[in-house]
Amino acid sequence: QPDLNYDNPAVQEEMLEVIRFWLGQGIDGFRVDAVPYLYEREGTNCENLPETHAYLKRMRAFVDQVAPGALLLSEAN
User: pLDDT tens digits for 6-61?
Assistant: First the structure.
């Protein structure tokens, strides 16, 4: 899997555009993998970081706006 820098706002925006593209193709759900590790913070195991939760909320709101009813499924540790 690629190791994207979610601290970069351009990466965040581009990932939402990827979601928009696939929703536009008729996809009605996504499996979001490795969610606990979207953001990396030294001295932590990177799980349950506030910025991760904030981005997931943003992603959910985006999906709800673009394709109400679409599913987001992610792993939880």
Answer: 999 999 999 999 999 999 999 999 999 888 889 889 888 878 899 999 999 999 99
Does any domain span residue 54?
A: yes
On whether residue 38 sits in a domain, the answer given is: yes
Burial environment of residue 72 by CB neighbours within 10 A (0 to 12, 13 to 18, 19 or more): middle
65 domain-assigned: yes
Q: Is 64 a catalytic residue?
A: no
Catalytic residue check, 28: no
Q: Which residues pair with 73 in a beta bridge?
A: 31
- Annotated catalytic residue: which of 13, 28, 33, 64? 33
